Amino acid sequence: MTATRSWAWWTWVAVAAVGCSQKKFSEPYKLASGQPIDVQTLNDGHDAYMLYCYGCHGEKGDGSGPSSATMRPPPRNFSRGLFKFAGVEAGKLPTDEALERTVRRGLNGTPMLPWDIPDVERKAIIAYLKTFSPRWQSADEYGTPIEISPDPWKEKRHRRFSGAKKFTTWRWAAPAARVATRDMPRTKRYPR
Ligand code: HEC
Fold first, then answer.
1. Whose CA is nearest to atom 2 of ligand 1?
2. What pLDDT score does 23 carry?
3. What pLDDT was estimated at residue 49?
4. Measured in angstroms, how far is the CA atom of residue 70 from the centroid of ligand 1?
5. Is the CB of residue 192 less than 8 Å from the CB of residue 181?
6. What is the pTM of this model?
7. 56 lines ligand 1 (CB under 6 A)
8. Distance (Å, rounded) from C-alpha 180 to C-alpha 164?
9. Which of 32, 86, 104, 141 has the highest count of CB atoms within 10 angstroms of its CB?
10. Could you give the CA distance from residue 9 to residue 46 in angstroms, rounded to a whole number?
11. pLDDT at residue 14 tops 60
12. What is the average per-residue pLDDT within 97-109?
């Protein structure tokens, strides 16, 4: 390599390195409620989002990530700012707790799985999600949290099972089942 060529090469490397390390945000992001999101949180949120959520929700948060094409239901489009599980009256923006719950527990029966992400990263992702839709910059769009009453079955479920045990004797159930299925054809799939 000649001197000039090697010089050009190193310049290219330096430019590439600066380009890669350049962060997406250089200013805090103002929201209609609470503190503005600081630069560090925004950039951390962006990086973690690109790692965990991008595949489905897409780079722009519009739900068109590379693996979203055949997904039913489709991944949520965050740029519309509409949510189903918001913990507030319908149509309003969700509370942070509701978003956290969705990410931690997932949405059962959909490709939205539970994500076991460290707290700091999860909070940063949730902050970053708010930059996708301008709705978060308007105070009228925020909902008032709905008080969720405690689950009335939480304790009773155990009691019902233990109660049922007392009154059920399985001694008659097994021979009865044998009689009931005696004449049924034996199959490989349902061996007795
Ligand atoms: C494998 C694909 C996939 C990945 C990865 C994924 N999601 Fe989802 N997500 C979905 C789908 C599909 C839905 C829509 C579910 C529905 O409509 O019930 C959804 C819905 C959501 C919702 C909407 C909840 C509401 O109240 O409407 C939020 C918030 C969300 N995802 C956040 C995230 C975050 C944050 C990450 C990354 C940590 C993530 N998702 C990663 C597929 C994914």
1. 56
2. 87
3. 98
4. 15
5. yes
6. 0.75
7. yes
8. 23
9. 86
10. 31
11. no
12. 95
Q: What value does the mean pLDDT of the chain take?
A: 84
In the numeric block, the tokens 């489905």 are attached to: 56
8 Å CB contact between 56 and 75: yes
Q: Is 11 exposed, middle or buried (0-12, 13-18, 19+ CB in 10 A)?
A: exposed
Q: Is the CB of 75 under 6 A from ligand 1?
A: yes
Please state, in angstroms and rounded to a whole number, the distance separating the CA atoms of residues 180 and 167.
Answer: 22
Look up residue 103 and give its amino acid: V
**CA proximity to 124, closest of 25, 21, 56:** 25
- Name the residue at shortest CA distance from atom 19 of ligand 1: 75
More confident: 162 or 146: 146
Ligand 1 pocket test, candidate residues 44, 46, 49, 57, most atoms within 8 A of CB? 57
Longest Cα–Cα distance in the chain = 94
Sign of CA dihedral 103, 108, 109, 113: positive
Q: Which atom of ligand 1 is nearest to the CA of 115?
A: 38
CATH code of domain 21-141? 1.10.760.10
Residue closest via CA to ligand 1's atom 34 equals 53
> Does ligand 1 come within 6 angstroms of the Cβ of 99?
yes
Lowest-pLDDT choice from 20-29, 95-104, 165-174: 165-174
